[in-house]
Amino acid sequence: MRYDKRAFLYRIEQTETPLGVKEKMTPYPVACNAQILSVEEQTAIYGAVSQHRVKLHIKGKVREVEKVEFEGEIYEITLTKHFRHSTILYLERMTPHG
Fold first, then answer.
1. How many CB atoms are closer than 10 A to CB 36?
2. Would the pTM count as exceeding 0.85?
3. What's the pLDDT tens digit per position in 29-64?
4. How far apart are CA 32 and CA 51, in angstroms?
5. How far apart are the first and last CA of the chain?
6. Are the C-beta atoms of 38 and 55 separated by less than 8 Å?
C-alpha cells in the first residue's frame, strides 16, 4: 500500500498552570493512504450514504486523536480500527459544504 498522502492528526495536550489546566491542540503530520468509502460500506457502518466520508490507512498505532485535517478539510473520527501494524480511521467532514 502506498502512503503517499499527508494528513495532520490533532491531539489535545493538557499542561498544568497556576490558574488551572491549559489545553492546546497540537498537530502531528503523518503519511497515509486515502480511500473513498463504497456505498455498501457506508450503509453497513453509518446506515446512510454521504459524499463527505473518507477512510485513512495509517502505519502504526494511532491513539488519542481528536480531529484530522486532510486535503485542507477538517474531519472528525467516527470509527477507528486497530490492526497489528496499522490503523484505519473512518472520517466524516465536520462542516460539509458544496
1. 10
2. no
3. 999 999 988 888 888 888 888 888 899 999 999 888
4. 20
5. 30
6. no
